Predict the 3D structure of the following.
Amino acid sequence: MEHGVDVAAKLRVDSAIGLNEFYSDRNGTEELVSTKRNEGGFVHTTTTLASDENLRNTFETDMLITNARRIEADEERNTAERVIVKGFIFDFRKALLPVEFTALTPGAMNYFESLEASEKNPVFTKVKGVQISQTITRKITEESAFDGPSVREVTSTRRDFVITSASKEPYVWDDESTMTVAELKAGLQDRETYLATIKQRQADYRASQSGASTPTATPAASVGGFNF
């Protein structure tokens, strides 16, 4: 910081989209927390950076879309109208990673809604976009019986993966050249086994802290609600 931006080292990070997943009982009921993060990959030195900052934090991934829902704008929370695109991406082991991305432009929102993707009728395609991190400050005014209203500021950080492009033609679904229904079912079952493993690991850790023993968790029979 003391030498200034002109002589700062420039780095390029090539990573993968991953999930930080664990079970939380902060609200009294155990629920899965699944947060997107950048992981793995390599760090390189570079001499130049894209002048447009939106071109520095891009992502590209194949995605099996199972739902797209529109969320109305919220003026109080300073959030724009958007469509949440839900589905699965894949890690280098081809494990299923459930994610939600965001579409913000009218064209993108209309396109993803028009796909009519569902768990029974998924759409397999490639999407590209940018990762954003914004600090949002909201002013909250509270009326008072005297001396006028009081105003306080609430600051929050918004991180999101915003889709800016998708392949003109989706991949052929349920085909050996892309992905079959049988492969998806197997992937969903593997994910249930994985979730049971991390749930058991967390239960074992809590038991070690309290000195109690825990029963062994078993994978759920469900395969994610898909009906093929």
